[in-house]
Amino acid sequence: MDIFSVGSFAPFYFPRPIYRIFLAVALLLSFLKLACGQEIGAYKTIRSGDFSQTSLWVVWNGTNWLPATQKPGKDQDIYIDQTHRLTLLGSEAVKSVFIHAGAGAAQKLTLNGHNLDVYGSLAAFTGAAPGLPRGALNSQNWIGNSLSSSLTFKGTSRVIVEKSSWSALTTQSRFSVIFDPGPGQVLTLMAPIKALSFSVRSGTLDQKIDRTISPNACFTLSFNTENAIFGAGSFGDFTVEAGATFRSECNANLINRSANAFGSALLFELKREGRLVLQGTSPTIEAAEFRLDGTIIFDPIQGPGTFLTSTYPNSSAPSELRHLELHGPQPLQLPSSLSMTGDLLQFDLGTLRLADTHLSLTGEDDQVLRGSTLELGSFTVDKLGGTVHFQQNLSLERQFTLRQGRLDFHGNDLQLNRSHLGGYSYSKGSWKNLGLLSYFALPPLLNGQNATFPFEDIENGGIRSLQLLGSSSGGTLTLQFIEKKGANHDANFLDRDGTPILYQLHSYFRLAISPPGQEELALRISAAGLLVEDAEDLRVVGTGEPASGSHVPGQYIDQNRWGQRKVRIEELQSGNFTLGSFREGTVLPLPRKK
Question: Most exposed residue of 104, 193, 452, 578, measured as fewest CB within 10 angstroms of its CB?
Fold first, then answer.
């Protein structure tokens, strides 16, 4: 004998197939009716009126709609039936909001400047309540009636707008939407929403793609398009607050005012400690202004990713941000220009593609750059405070500009102008813990701007800059600063002109230019942080022996004392270069602060 089972219903035994078919249909219809039915305790309007009026409501008891004895609360669904208009006189809370999609009252839910907390979902329906789901296919102002009128989605993780139960065709929506479920909770969008503003205050807002159609479409968050009231230009603010996350798997039109090519939002703001997680391969947000002070996380899930962009003529290209992270195995192509005040971090196996990018670092905070490779097109540092930390070798194809700032290489190397089409420009700042410097295609005239190398002498204090001045025939400069604590107070050797050297700093430079040439350069080393009574006391010497070239009297330049020497390019690689003195009481490291 055959057995037939539907869902959780107990098995029924029927000897003939026709009866099994009839039973299956009957049970399925019964199951669908239960699935589509309203919950026990759900409220329904019987006329237009104020939310707090008990006489406005009837309540479903499982069989019938009965008169309400109190207004609905956060645990009850509400149904606003056809032609009815529900008005709030103060802030309220409900579970789900179901609005009849049929003709009737132009505005169906008047928030009246107040807030309605929603602990369930938002949906439109047709037919007698609970009816059938239907998208909000009406351009009227269904919910309103001001920027201070708001729906706030609160509660536990769930889908807050189901597919085909709402739409962005409510073009005159005059209310704000707030997503505030609390830390660790996820609110999922499975249909588009249009409003006056959006704010993600806590938890995660998860924006999905509609994969049931081809091409796939994004469940877009968009803004009112009443040009006569809100203007014909960009309009609508989208904000991700501190501690909140907006996560999207979309590519086109995550945020806009409308699908019109000129319908951009006014502002997309990612506040400090907020997170934007982009899982699409080519995400776009159409906004006239971006404020990206939080963390942007790229985690493309279907292939190589490109940086966040915009396409509308009245949208701006997002190019200034705080933190950027790459997660997952896919590479990320960065834009041609990017300015950051925070960290650039690669996690997992994906790679940061920066070979065509001009990266600028600014601000006053510490910044960390970490990738399996750090190969930049060009690089500018202009920091008023903080330190830039490199956790890999840094390689620059073209230009490196250091206007101001402190760079800590943590023992990694630096390569400049690998393409031979750029260069190096220095104004002020310092390098710390740099391994090997390789400077390709030296300019024909070396000066304080293109050939000052500002190494920090951590062991002895101060910035031990090295300068090369004069003509060159190009080639590649390699340079190392070897740090050793203290000074030799009993150097006891003669310079090449017979002058006795009494002191010699233990830290020293080692450098070479290849191919070597006959040009003579002025080599300078700064004595910042050292006890020097007079710049003329200084001499550029070797380690325990005279340096190559000939002595040039020290000078006081730009509030700094410099030791100087003339050296031919071919002589640079024949020894070390450091500071010494022929006079007692000079070239002594200052006592270090504990």
Answer: 104
